[in-house]
Specification:
- The protein is of the alpha+beta class.
- Helices cover 35% and strands 17% of the residues.
- It folds into two domains: 169 residues, PAS domain (Beta-Lactamase, 2-Layer Sandwich), CATH 3.30.450; 83 residues, PAS domain (Beta-Lactamase).
- The protein contains 13 helices and ten strands.
- Strands 1, 2, 3, 4, 5 and 6 form a six-stranded antiparallel beta sheet that branches. It has a four-stranded antiparallel beta sheet with strand order 8-7-10-9.
- A hairpin with a 5-residue loop joins strand 3 and strand 4.
- Helix 5 runs antiparallel to helix 7 and helix 12 runs antiparallel to helix 13.
- This is LOV domain-containing protein.
Length: 341
Amino acid sequence: MDSQLGLIEQSFNNRYTLWVHEALDELPDSFTITDPSISGHPIVFASRGFLKMSGFSRAEIIGRNGRMFQGPRTNRRTIMEIREAIREERPIEVNLLNYKKDGTPFWMLFKMSLVFGKEDGRATHFVAVQVPIVSRKHMRNSGMSYSEDGGGSRLREIVFGSCRREVCSDSLLDLDRVLALDSDDTGLEIEDSCEASDLEKRKAATAIDNILSVLTHYSQLTGRLVCGKRCSLPGMGFISSSLYISLGRIKQSFVLIDPHLPDMPMVYASDAFLKLTGYDRNEVVGQNCRFLNGVDTDTTVLYQSSTDKGKHSNRASMHRRIKAHFGIFFTYHPSVMLLAR
C-alpha cells in the first residue's frame, strides 16, 4: 500500500506544482480525480466538498476505486455505460444512484471528463463530478419552489465523482448481457428514478470547466501541459488508458518495449517494477533499458540480445541467456517486447 501511495503522490507531483492541491480544494465543487496508469485505477484526489457530502475521510478515499460508492440499488446498466466510456476515453453524463458512507442512497448527475497530456495526447487523469438531483416529487411535497434561472441556487450543490471499475476487453459483451436483464434491477420503482434538470447539468459542466482550468494552469508552471481535449494524436508507443488499467491487474515486475520506435524505448512500466527499481514512472517511460545497466552488467549478453532479438531461430537461446545473467524473463513479439523480473 505504501508503494501505491507513493505512485499516487507522483501522479500529481510529476505534472503539476505542489499548489495544485490547495487550488483544487478552494473550488466549491465536490469531485474526484483518478489515474488510469496506476493499478486499480484509484482515486488520487478528492475535494473537500466530496468528503463533506459523502461522509468519508480523505484517507478512506485516496487509493480506492470509485466502485466503493455503489450499492445494491445502483443501476448495473448505467455502470456498464460508464465503463465503456472509460474504455473509449470519452466524456459521459448519466443519472446514477450511489451511496454515502452511512449507507444513505441518493440520486445524482454523474459527469465524467478526461485530462490529456498535450505533448503525447495520452489520457493522464479522469475527472468525475456529481451533482445531486433534487427530486421534483420531494420538492412538491415539501412546498419548495424551483426555477431554472437561478431560483434553485439556494439548494446546496454537492458534487462528487468517481471513476468506475476498470474495463475488460470483453466489456461490450458484458454490456449486452446486462441490457438483457431488464427484470433484474433489484426492485427499483419507476417513480424512484430521477432525471437531472437543465440547471443541474449546467452546474456539472461549470464544475468540470473550473477543475480543468486549475489543472491546465498548474501544469503550465511545470512545462508538462495538459488540456481537456486531446491536443495531439497519439503516436507509436501510445498506450490507451484502458490498456493501462488491464496491465495494472498484473502484479509482476515488468516493462513493455516498442521495437518500432527509435532506440526501442520502454512504453510501460508496472507498479512492481517501479517499486523494485526505485524509479518514478516518468523516469522510466521513454528510456532505453540500457540505463538500468551498471558496472557489473555483462556487455556480451547485451550484444547477443540486440543481435538476436529479431531472429526467430535464436529466440529461445536468447531467452535462456538473458534469464541466466539477469534473473529476468524476456520475450519478443513483432509489435512489443516484454521484459519481466
